[in-house]
Amino acid sequence: DLDFCPVCNTSRWKDSNTSGKKVPKKVLLYFLIIPRLQRLYKSSHTAKEMIWHATGKCTEPGKMQRPVDGRAWKKFDTKYPDFAKEPRNVRLGLAADGFNPFGNLSQAYSMWPVILTTYNLPP
Predict the structure, then answer these.
(1) Domain boundaries, the chain
(2) 3-state DSSP call for residue 89?
(3) CA 102 to CA 7: how far, in whole Å?
(4) Helix, strand or coil for residue 115?
(5) Which of 9, 17, 53, 100 is most buried, by the most CB atoms less than 10 A from its CB?
(6) Is residue 54 helix, strand or coil?
(7) CB 53 within 8 A of CB 67
């Protein structure tokens, strides 16, 4: 709830001559995951592609052409057979990389961009 950045003392708000509600300079935009996944199954075209891992065949045996051909996918299927039985279950990959934007590691300021990738879709 600070009006100024504690590091550089810059205002968090856009300058405006009007009194009233403050408008932030920057807003973090993100997409909610559930509506995004639901949208993938609403289209008949993408719904078919979401189950390609269960219906597609490897064209070059012995080569990993897609995630379903890998050992990790097969091990997951063995460990969780109930999840693997239903081809509409969504497999997600998560990538995160944290960093300190001000370079001062003694401070608690950090950012963690997070990206989710749907492995169900074909490459």
Answers:
(1) 33-118
(2) coil
(3) 8
(4) strand
(5) 53
(6) helix
(7) yes
Cα(3)–Cα(51) distance, rounded to whole angstroms? 49
Q: Say whether pTM exceeds 0.85.
A: no
What are the DSSP calls for 23-69, one per residue? -BS-------HHHHHHHHHHSHHHHHHTTHHHH---SSTTS--SGGG
Task: Give the whole-angstrom CA distance, residue 74 versus residue 82.
Answer: 13
Residue reference for tokens 């990993």:
64
β partners of residue 94: 116
pLDDT (tens digit per residue) in 11-65 = 888 876 666 788 888 777 788 999 999 999 999 999 999 998 888 766 777 777 7
> How many CB atoms lie under 10 A from the CB of residue 82?
7
What is the C-alpha to C-alpha distance for residues 72 and 108, in angstroms, rounded to an integer?
A: 35
Separation CA 121–CA 59 (nearest Å): 17
